[in-house]
Specification:
Elements (H helix, E strand, L loop, with lengths): L3 H21 L10 H12 L4 E6 L16 E7 L15 E2 L2 E2 L6 E8 L15 E9 L3 E8 L15 E9 L7 E6 L16 E7 L15 E2 L2 E2 L7 E6 L16 E7 L15 E2 L2 E2 L8 E6 L16 E7 L15 E2 L2 E2 L8 E6 L16 E7 L12 H45 L1
Parallel strand pairs: 1-2, 5-6, 7-8, 9-10, 13-14, 17-18, 21-22
Antiparallel strand pairs: 3-4, 11-12, 15-16, 19-20
Length: about 450
Amino acid sequence: MATLRDYIAALIRDRDDLAANLKEMGVEADASEKFPSLVEKVLDIETGGALSDITVQSGQSTFTETPADGYYGIGSVTVQGDENLVEGNIKLGTDILGVTGTYAPRLQTKTKSISSAGTYSISPDSSYDGLAKATVTVTMPLQEKSVSYTENGEYTISPDSGYSGMTEVGVTVDVPTEVILQSKSVTPGASSQTVKPDDDYNGLSSVAVDGDSDLIAENIRYGVSVFGVEGTYNEILLQEKSVTPSTSAQTVKADSGYDGLSQVTVEGADDLIASNIREGVTIYGVEGSYSSGTTYQSKTVTPTKNSQTVTADSGYNALAKVVVDGDSNLIAGNIAKGVSIFGITGTYSPEPALQELTVIPSVSAQYITPGDGYDGFSSVTVEAGEASGDYTEGYADGAASRDDEVADLEDQIANLEAQLTELKAQVDELAAFVDLEEEE
């Protein structure tokens, strides 16, 4: 027997099914809604609800619109329009959706005149789409020309620059009634010659071309043709030359007109002997033996803080050369700032490495020196301590110890004074030696 729980479960299933069916029909519904709400949505469908609104746009082909998914019918259809669908935008005679076109290309008839040869371009004006007809009118400039001649001959008459042809040519021939002719002669040369009559003559009665009896094959170089005469002369023409030696090499060649050199004479010199050439010098294989009797010395000097005068040692007459030593360390970075050595101003300004040190006093004296890598002290701090106990305790022992230390210091001072005296003597001796060297 069905219970109340079973009825309630059946109602829930029916509500869920109804909500699902409404959603398939495109109606917004949810299973969580109550039955009355779902029923109202069903009643809306029965009175024409769930219809889709459609907007369409025309194209080239016909098409049919159907309801969208979830709708059982079409509520309204909006067919879009286009403001450009007018006859002026449609080809002449073409019907689009009942609109017959009237648009046709705007063609221009144009005429162009040309007066010289060339390539021309004829284009429509900006308000036209093209040319319906193009007419070209050719007007070539022609010249009326007059010419005058005073001599017989054949002449070519052409239009002047800027004209394409001639409409008329007038020719005036002014030939003298008295003809005066001249006889001339010409000697052939290496180039062609044009023979013309002199002034006051109308022409030439004759032209005598000179001959030369030497124009024969035997006088013309073999392989060369002169005025049609083939040369047979095959003797080589050689030249004799002489040359005087100098400090630089010389190339001796035959002059123009010669085939080569028959001989070359190299001038000699009676004075080219060893006794005339400096000893140690060789000229054209002759080793010199001449000596002036002067012996030369080469010396080297190292610069110092004092100027030095270098002279030849005993046994030498003069100096051949003096080498002044240089030193790669003589640079600005190795010279104290502001100091100039041999024209080089120093830039070295050392920063001393100073040590801070703290000293704890003791009964005996302490001799404090900077640690490795330090040049000195920036500060020395001597620690202070609080007095305690009996000040006299150990005093006697301390006093005795200090007496011993004082005695040791006195011995050390005596030794240092003796070493200083010896060092001063060495310095005086070195100074005397340097002064002697400078005097020499």
